[in-house]
Design brief:
Layout: H1 23-32, E1 37-41, E2 55-61, E3 64-70
Length: 71
Amino acid sequence: MAPIPTPSAEPDDNPDAYVGLAAGRAEDLARERGWSTVRALPPGAIITMEYRVGRLNFEVKDGRVARAWKG
């Protein structure tokens, strides 16, 4: 049986710091800070609710991050 992989640690980063930034700049910054997956979503997008370590979600409205959260 293969060993269960250990997920990498999440960056010590506050998602609220991205609110108000231009979407492209926020994505670049998130990757620089160690987020393995960055997902930009339109307001009201229907998404699954599974939590993924290392993923940062952005709700983007008019080209700017309106909300950001982990998972």
